[in-house]
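It is worth pausing here to work through a concrete case rather than discussing structure prediction in the abstract. The textbook approach is simple: state the sequence, then state the predicted structure, then interpret. We follow exactly that order.
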Amino acid sequence: MKGKIKVLVLDDDTELEALLNAKLKSKMFDLTFCTKIKDFSLKYFNESWDLCLIDLNLEEAPEAGFHVLNMVRAKEKKYTPIIMISQDGEKEKIAHAIECGADDYVTKPFSTTELMARVRAVLRRIRPALVEDQVTVGDITIDRTTHTVSRDGKNIHLGPTEFRLLDYFMQHPGRVFSREQLLDTVWGS
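Step two, the predicted structure:
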């Protein structure tokens, strides 16, 4: 998996937060955790996310994950993949989550290996530019392994910042960004 994947997690399980931070928070993932629906909503609608993990049952409300999923899908401007997570493995609830717009459903307890496989599968389907080593958009091909770019088969020399900027644009085709968003994402704070 290439690039930094921004993941917003809604779950009030502190053990899960510790596990995900230990196993997934790395160069590949930038994890942000929320324990309350209000906090999740503020972050979700005010920032750009590559993936969300939403727990079905929260202390503040049983089956709150369905409410959050419905709210997000009704109001979102950009489609963000969502994986529901829950200790509840009832087939009816899994089917309902998928029907409401979840891209996948993982039953707790799960291994981080299984979660990573599901994350990769969802991102390959929905945002392949985040997980592929080589991506082509139109006549431009970018190879993240060799840090090369070509157009119509001719190599184009780009500096490191130009490469990161082009890579970011190719990960988000058809999207418009503010200057601040680009500075924060490509150049860093």
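Step three, interpretation. Residues 112-126 form the longest helix (15 residues). The mean pLDDT is 83.
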